[in-house]
Specification:
Elements: E1 10-12, E2 18-19, H1 42-52, H2 56-63, E3 64-68, E4 74-78, E5 91-92, E6 95-96, H3 104-108, E7 111-117, E8 124-131, E9 144-145, H4 147-153, H5 157-170, H6 179-194, H7 196-205, H8 208-211, H9 216-224, H10 226-242
Antiparallel strand pairs: 1-8, 2-9, 3-4, 5-6, 7-8
């Protein structure tokens, strides 16, 4: 999504890149970790819950508030600490306590990444912009960066790879249906994207794997690896919700599972 052009914090990124540095020696260090409105992607939740040793439900209960997100899909927002500054719950005296697994939005800052396309698995287009907030002093010094160098330095490749698989779902409206069906689809979406423990049980105990043609090696990987299961969840949601040909039914099986 593109930022609001009336919002003065967002500026076009010039061809020459940008200069930026963030470390404890910068006067504003930690100021950007306050009063956040940070929506968590499924990959954000996967990384954070694993880092904290929590199940998905416990992580959401402790650290997130579920709200209506893009196109009406339910998505968790990181819950700020109950203090005057409304700090990030993972902000410590020396900075981020989950730095190696911090959300993608934190890694991207002070850039913003807007994506277009991909609604049905087609090619993605991306554009970048600078986020200049009044408190930030990071632009006053530091090395020069290109978007490619910043992406690599901040470990964003893995986040973009997974989040771009998520985009063809949230960029579309939920399929038209009766209210009770919409509610069921929203629950299905949230389970598959944000509660992998429950989704793994669903895959194991439903008729899904008897209907969908999946190699045994992939089934074994999904049973043991949350990232592989999440990637399958995106394929299954696109298949079940929108009819995208992301999965193949076994020979002789009827209509796709709903």
């Amino acid at each position: 999504m593109l930022p609001d052009p009336k919002d003065g914090r967002f500026q076009e990124l010039g061809a020459g890149g940008f200069r930026f540095s963030c470390h404890p020696g910068v006067a504003c260090f930690g100021e950007c970790c306050r009063k956040l409105n940070l929506v968590l992607t499924p990959y954000d939740v996967l990384r954070l819950k694993t880092r904290l040793g929590l199940g998905a439900e416990e992580f959401i209960d402790r650290h997130a508030e579920v709200e209506t997100g893009q196109n009406g899909w339910p998505m968790p927002r990181l819950q700020m600490a109950d203090n005057a500054e409304r700090t990030c719950p993972f902000l410590g005296q020396n900075g981020c306590t989950v730095y190696e697994d911090r959300p993608g939005a934190c890694r991207t800052y002070p850039l913003g990444r807007a994506t277009r396309g991909g609604q049905a698995g087609g090619p993605l287009e991306e554009s970048w912009f600078l986020v200049r907030e009044p408190h930030c002093r990071g632009f006053e010094d530091g090395p020069d960066w290109t978007t490619e160098a910043w992406t690599k330095d901040q470990g964003l490749e893995a986040y973009h790879a997974v989040n771009d698989l998520f985009l063809p779902i949230i960029s579309r409206q939920p399929p038209a249906a009766r209210p009770e069906q919409i509610h069921k689809k929203m629950q299905m979406f949230f389970m598959a994207c944000y509660n992998l423990e429950r989704f793994r049980e669903f895959v194991a105990n439903s008729s899904l794997t008897r209907m969908v043609d999946l190699p045994q090696a992939r089934l074994e990987a999904m049973a043991q690896n949350d990232l592989q299961l999440l990637k399958f969840a995106f394929e299954w949601l696109r298949f079940a919700l929108f009819g995208d040909q992301t999965l193949r039914l076994k020979e002789g099986v009827g209509p796709r599972p709903a």
